[in-house]
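pasting input
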Amino acid sequence: MTENKQWEPKIVAFCCNWCSYGGADTAGMGRFQQPASLRIIRVMCSGRIDPLHVFNAFLEGADAVLVTGCHLGDCHYVNGNYKTQVRYDFMEDMVKELGLEPERLHLSWISASEGEKFANFVREVTEQVRKLGPSPLKPEGVN
Amino acid sequence: MAQSEINDDTKNTDEPRIGVFICECGVNIGGVIDCHAVADYAGTLPDVIRSSVNKYTCSDSGQSEIKQAIKDNNLNRVLVAACTPKTHEPIFRACVEEAGLNPYLFEFVNIREHCSWIHMQEKEAATEKACELVRMGVSRASKLEPLQSNEVPVTNTALVIGAGVAGMQSALDIADMGYKVYLVEKNPSIGGKMAQLDKTFPTNDCSICILGPKMVEVARNKNIELMTYSEVEEVDGYVGNFKVKVRHKARYVDVNTCTGCGLCVEKCPVEVPNTEFNEGIGTRKAIYVPFPQAVPLRAVIDKSVCIDCGACSRACSSNSIIMEQEDTFSELDIGVIVVTAGFDVYDPEPTHDFGYGLYDNVITGMELERLINASGPTMGKVVRPSDVKPPKKVGFIQCVGSRDKKRNRYCSSFCCMYALKDAQLIREKYPDSEVYIMYMDMRTPFRNYEEFYDRARDMGIRFIRGKPGKVTENEDNGLKVRVEDTLTNDIIDLDLDLLVLSVGAVSSESTERIRQILKVSRAADGFLMEAHPKLKPVDTTLDGIFIGGVSQGPKDIPYSVSQGSACAARATRYLAQGKAITEGITVEVNPDICVACGICVPMCPFQALSIEDGKLNIIKALCKGCGTCAVACPTGALQQNHFRNDQLLAQVKNVFTFEE
């Protein structure tokens, strides 16, 4: 199945319920077409996104991982995204340690009204990852 | 096995038996995704007992099919692949609950907004992605566990913070519904900004004439306990059970015996600018009654300028002056909170917008309100500050501090209307005067507002579409304003006697202080943020806390009053029910592996966590279920229900498939 098809990246996005998940919804409502590369996992707050989840995604075969949430100052839970920011800095360091290209991990604050921004973000990251090719951490045989 | 033999107790805890329902949503999903192929694929996944396709799963027949399938197949998990959980999750949770399942055993997969609508030209890829999204959802559904919502009792009292017109309306409505209201106002009198205004648009009726009776009504209402010259200092607790500490600032006057006669004010030798009520125009004494219609009509001493001469004390016939008075505090048990903490008028002084603060005869719209007000410092005479003479040529500049990327981007919404009103009042009072309004756009929606604009034009007020580029002062303190009329492309030099800046609203310091105490979110414009811009316009994301008036964003009087009433209606729902349901998605600690290190405690913005007697204590009613603390836990003892690591990691794992 994989051989006769062109390789397409698989990107795991963690979205918070209130902002970025809503942004993805708004992108859909606006019919902003995107590559079919994204798989969204919904959490209540970006503050719930654990480095454990992110690196598991890489180990399972993700070609890129997106950490997304509300704009700073707009967190539904007051300041969860500030904690996400701190944890993200750590994740970035880890990505380097693991020898992954930094373009495989992204952070973006997207409000529920920013559908176009969400779609553009997905397009840009997918394009970058297409150029990079499959993740070096992707286990053999995984699609 | 006959249906009657199904043991309800085991329904939720037995091996997962998942029913999958794929929604075509008419052609919204079905037009792109091969839903039958997705349903067939779902049928091959572990724990899936049955799968099917519906035209509209959320319809009555779609929901009936789910309920029937739960019965027929003894399902203990339900997955619907359709639109977004943001709108439809509550519907399906209620549906499975009606069929006897715990609502948290429902899983939603979004294949419309996140799939069919964004891959409209890639039907094959969309179908494949939908299969994968369903696979991820099924893996998560297998691991779902029943959760219980918590019910907490609600104290049947309300706190309204800020007694402007919105807060007064809110307090009156709640009180009239039969509940006790504490109305806290930081100033010595209630009334807010509306008390300072002269007339109100679009009827030009006198502001205090309509507000005054309402202020008296507030004071007389038996269910309202008025706390003026008081501020909320601390708020603890959660919906239905707030503990509120209020500081009552010392007035140095006994409010119970003072009659507001004003004899003390006459005798007081200290005069300072009246910044509180008259925008710094004219003076007041160190002891003063805020304004003639103040409620309560009581004197207050400004200790920062008082010289302790005792003249007021000697003048007072009721011995009401208490120089040694100190601040006192109240502790209140509160069920619901309404925030109507008001706004500040944009201050053009620091940046000297259009020469304000540099030239005497450039004033703000609020200063004009006080000048034109019959009970104001000039008894209603509009005069130039430089020579106290009536101006012949008056100009207004619109959008000062608003609709400006360097100041505030938003429209303050009421400035066009108040400029039209003040321009009309000047023309009425001084028929020989010339009045100019320099504007970018005149914004006059709502009933009778456009007609009001027409009337201003009929009265000979001149409109120049353009924002002035330069304001300079003449030798006689007049002002030269250079503006381009963008409708004619003419550069116009206006010689004016008085220039009024139509300043907008900015979020007030006191609103920001209350916001930080209550932990309500702030929108990008600095005002308080509502839970949903359309469907929950006065709710906050915090249960039991509501926002209204200009503290939520710039708006005029009718809109503020409506929001005050809306807050009252939303808030009293809790009081009427006497109980509140708090979210079932909370964090849970496994005491066997928790080492009580306390790392999680500062993570929680709601103070739900504490270490007590060497153990982690979680106040479930305070936990909003964000899960931030769970990430911080070094031992894995803290888990967020419904978003546990095993549930999320199952989803992650099932993004991918393994092929030999």
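fyi Residues 1-12 of chain B have pLDDT under 50 and may be disordered.
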